[in-house]
Design a protein that fits this description.
The complex is a heterodimer of chains A (about 100) and B (about 450). Chain A has a single domain, classed as Alpha-Beta Plaits (2-Layer Sandwich), CATH 3.30.70. With about 100 residues, chain A is an alpha+beta fold. Chain A contains two helices and four strands; from the N terminus they run βαββαβ. In chain A, a hairpin with a 5-residue loop joins β2 and β3. Chain B is about 40% helix and about 10% strand. Chain B has three domains: about 220 residues, NADH-ubiquinone oxidoreductase 51kDa subunit (Rossmann fold, 3-Layer(aba) Sandwich); about 80 residues, Ubiquitin-like (UB roll); about 90 residues, NADH-ubiquinone oxidoreductase 51kDa subunit, iron-sulphur binding domain (de novo design (two linked rop proteins), Up-down Bundle). The chains are: A alpha+beta (about 100), B alpha/beta (about 450). Chains A and B meet through loops of A and α3, α13 and α14 of B. The structure holds flavin mononucleotide and iron/sulfur cluster (SF4) (2 copies).
């Protein structure tokens, strides 16, 4: 996955549009290397077997998003993904972590 | 093997009246189950049309049909309770012509409602699929069933042939068979089978209705959901809303299994009544069971008193944390051990994992084993804490809802069977014997 970072970095506290992003893990790819947790400890924890368990709260701060992106890039299995979250009225699935699949940064 | 349905579905001995909230196959008050008794077998196309009238979609635009389904407020009957109209709109907005898939896999060993519809009222399901296809401008419908189900493929293919002979089919139907496993009925596994011949769930970063089979918008809905559409298209959304409740309109099919005189019986609930009232219709002895597993093997246990008093309305049940799911009511009679039963079900679920995701592969067998030890009087208080932790660690994890289902089952068992747990912790092995709920194979860890 390649997501270009904006060159003009806005202040870290900037709220992101529209609602934020979710960092999600593809459970079929995560082998529990645990590298991601070093990049984004406040949102990723490792379960009792060492697999990545992710916070389901959307990311709304640019600083968090930047580190989330580092976590995405750090995973050797490409198991992590950032997805744009949707307002409930636009949601077309009851499953958590299902977004538009598009990522605009 | 063709008509394997039990005749107890014919409640001739206990006729439902026209305003009875509970209906059986052929009852006067039935909607989905209206028509001939189950002994008559599969309803022929001509009989179906004579009974319900012609399904004429010529004058309805896709938009009108989607608006009709939206006005009816129909939510999916496969477990997720997602509004069908929202799914259709998402598919339409995705741009390409959507694929329409009838999920007829019914992988829950306890569920019989989809089989009942396909065996007795196949044209209802096919009508509904045709309406959904028309509502999104599609002319192909795929019916997905498990392998080795001649009892389903037989009536479905006969019904498709009949429609061809009558020249009424506006769409092309095809039947696709997938592996006879529980998770192969999960929507992304269905898509994966159609795409690459392997029925494995996968993570969905985009809803399947937007991008499913090879990126094409794919509508995967449950058999019963389509059957409802067939009636909505004929009789309208107002008629549909006469049944059910304001929040979740429409009738709903239930399969009653476990400690009842005729396990596997399918009935149609037209209006919300308490579960106790429904169970009393099946047998007076079942009115107040020891416990009930509601919503399937991924559902939750309710203690007997709560179960009897629970209002069987999808919205109400969701609010109290016991969703009706695919409509399974698993009755645990006196003399059975809820823990032993839970261990069996968890062992089965562990074996049904597709083996792709760590927390599912590690967590489910661990759960099953500990609950088995608990039921066997070999566990200690620390194990109960470990079980709580396991449930938390698998909930919401993995590429599909399977681990969450196991967590529901486990957590509710720990709550509801707390008194039994206390007894078993003092080293008492289970005195209860006998097996309650049906499984497709022997669960993991059981001799
Ligand atoms: C492990 C698992 C197994 C499932 N098995 C079935 C099934 O056998 N039949 C079914 O209709 N839905 C099944 N589902 C639900 C489907 O993923 C999907 O939500 C459903 O077919 C959508 O139909 P509906 O919107 O009409 O409810 C399963 C889900 C999970 C997580
Ligand atoms: S780095 Fe990747 S594989 Fe390792 S734990 Fe994190 S998500 Fe899993
Ligand atoms: S969560 Fe379990 S059943 Fe679902 S895809 Fe992963 S391993 Fe398979």
């Amino acid at each position: 996955m390649s997501v270009p970072m904006s060159s003009e970095q806005s202040p870290d506290t900037t709220e992101l549009d529209p609602l934020g992003y979710l960092i999600v893990v593809d459970g079929t790819r995560c082998d529990g290397h645990g590298i991601c947790v070093l990049r984004l400890p406040e949102r990723i924890s490792l379960d009792q077997w060492g697999y990545a368990s992710l916070d389901v709260e959307p990311i709304v701060r640019r600083s968090t998003l930047r580190r989330a992106l580092r976590a995405v890039l750090a995973c050797p299995n490409g198991a992590l993904e950032l997805v744009e979250t949707l307002s409930p009225s636009r949601q077309v699935s009851t499953e958590p972590g299902v977004g538009t699949g598009r990522l605009r940064l | 093997m063709t008509s394997e349905l039990r005749t107890p579905n014919d409640h001739a001995h206990e006729e439902s009246t026209i305003d009875d909230p509970v209906a059986f196959v052929g009852s006067v008050n039935a909607r989905l189950l209206a028509g001939p008794q189950s002994a008559s077998g599969s309803e022929a196309f001509r009989q179906h049309e004579a009974r319900l009238g012609l399904l004429n979609l010529d004058d309805s635009s896709p938009h009108t049909l989607r608006a009709l389904i939206g006005a009816a407020g129909l939510v999916g009957r496969g477990g997720g309770e997602f509004p069908l109209a929202k799914k259709l709109d998402a598919a339409i907005n995705a741009g390409a012509t959507p694929l329409v898939v009838v999920n007829a896999s019914e992988g829950e060993p306890a569920s019989k409602k989809d089989a009942t519809l396909l065996q007795l009222r196949p044209h209802l399901v096919l009508d509904g699929a045709e309406v959904v296809a028309a509502s999104v401008g599609s002319s192909d419908v795929t019916i997905y069933v498990h392998r080795d189900r001649p009892d389903l493929v037989g009536p479905i293919s006969r019904a498709i042939r009949e429609r061809h002979l009558e020249g009424t089919s506006a769409v092309t139907f095809r039947i696709i068979e997938g592996p006879n496993r529980y998770v192969s009925g999960e929507a992304s596994a269905v898509v994966s089978l159609l795409e690459r011949g392997v029925a494995l769930p996968r993570r969905k970063s985009v809803p399947l209705a937007v991008a499913g089979v090879a990126g094409q918008p794919t509508i995967v809905s449950n058999t019963e959901t389509y059957a409802h559409v067939a009636l909505i298209a004929r009789f309208g959304s107002k008629w549909f809303r006469e049944t059910g409740s304001v929040d979740t309109p429409g009738s709903t099919l239930l399969t009653i299994v476990g400690s009842v005189p005729t396990p596997g019986e399918v009935l149609e609930l037209l209006r919300p009544v308490t579960l106790g009232t429904i169970l009393a219709r099946v047998s007076e002895k079942s009115r107040r069971p020891q416990a009930v597993l509601l919503g399937g093997y991924a559902g939750v246990w309710l203690d007997g008193a709560s179960a009897s008093a629970a209002l069987v309305d999808r919205h109400w049940l969701r609010q109290v944390g016991a969703p009706l799911g695919c409509g399974i009511v698993g009755v645990l009679g006196d003399g059975l051990c809820g823990l032993a039963e839970t261990a069996r079900l968890l062992g089965w679920m562990a074996e049904e994992s597709s083996g792709q995701c760590g927390p599912c592969v590690s967590g489910l067998p661990a759960m099953a084993e500990l609950v088995f030890e608990l039921a066997d009087g070999r566990a200690c208080a620390r194990d109960v804490v470990a079980l709580r932790r396991l449930a938390i660690d698998v909930r919401g994890r993995g590429a599909c809802g399977h681990p969450t289902g196991a967590a529901n089952l486990l957590e509710s068992a720990l709550d509801v069977f707390a008194p039994e747990i206390a007894k078993h912790l003092r080293g008492r092995a289970c005195e209860a014997h006998g097996v309650g709920l049906p499984l497709t194979h022997k669960p993991l860890g059981m001799s």
